[in-house]
Amino acid sequence: MRPTRPNSAARGGRGAHRRTSPVLAALGLTAALALTATACGPGGDDKADSKPTASATAGDDGLQIPDDIKDRLKKHGIDPDKWKNGEWKNWDKSKWLREAKDFVNPIIQDLWDPDRMRKAEKPPQKPVPNDISGDKGVTDPTPAPVKAKAQKAPYHQSLPELGKLFFDGPQGSMVCSATVVKDPAHPGKSNMVWTAGHCVHAGAKGGWYRNIAFVPSYNNDDMSLAQLRKATRQQIAPYGVFWADWAQTSQQWIQGGGPTGGQGAPYDFAVLHVTPEKGKGNKSLEETVGTALPVDFNAPAVPKIASMTANGYPAAPPYDGQKLYQCKDKPGRLSLDASTPTMYRLGCTMTGGSSGGGWIAAGADGKPALVSNTSIGPVTAGWLAGPRLGPEAKGVYDSVSNKYAGR
Prior knowledge:
Keywords: Signal
Region (Disordered): 1-21, 39-87, 115-154
Signal peptide: 1-39
CATH architecture of the domain at 22-129 and 156-295 and 390-403: Beta Barrel
InterPro entries: Glutamyl_endopeptidase, Peptidase_S1_PA, Peptidase_S1_PA_chymotrypsin
Number of helices: 9
Protein name: Secreted protein
């Protein structure tokens, strides 16, 4: 299924269904630097008489961007001042960074203001046909639709790890869903977020999405659309806005992912490392929300799983992207091709925007764990499919954890 317009890209991993900072570290900084700027208008649109300034900081210590790093940014066609003043809207192929090593996501402060977050409703992916198997692999009968259940407010009480992902693509602002996951290198202090590959990278014919930001417990109090129009940023994002300073997805997604999943669907997953938009000392994302889910890369085979829950913020009709929903069902198998991993499939009426949302089941130790994420689903919104997380997914996860292990 599709998120409401998203991005993804990275190395080694598996993916499955689509729905719907210090970024300079991605360029080799030993310290995590965040490129910050000021957005000067609603939705981040700059006004002609505005003259925001840019600075490089690591938290609140005022660390400046070294000249060699500035030069490397410029080699990617990114001038810090021009970028924050609107150059990020240039989606010319030569400007759309594609390779795993090229990810950059400079923080533009207040770009994701309440109005822009509320209006971002486009998932990045297109729905798929109801019957997409036609393979020689293993596919179970299409599951009966399971009506998505609206979560009770405050969301943080029942699903504190869940949140909404915002990003920009050539067609405008988009949305997906995402989950806070544990970081082996920083027990109890994770800054890692799990989502779908198509929520960070456009796949075979595109590159990395821009302005990727995670909002845990988005609209925590379950406000109506009318109430959200008058809500403050604190009310909409009570735990803050966290920008991705690094993103990684599977090479299979980068090479084979498409608008409806394509050959990259079984590898449609991504891991982000995030940093708070506005300095909050040394407090991690996990400490901020109070928890993080472990990831199970060796979940039981389908016949042994009693149930899974898919979670997300569906944005395509009949939903509006502002509220958190959940589907619970016994998973089946979906094989797109005998040569690629079999995906999980659940009956669920969630639509685009729920893409990337975590699928939770009992892990090997019997405790709740993330075992997949929403990747694809049909326009009829009767089912969702997600990748089965194996060695490729673990490779992406470990790579992000190791990248920040000494920081």
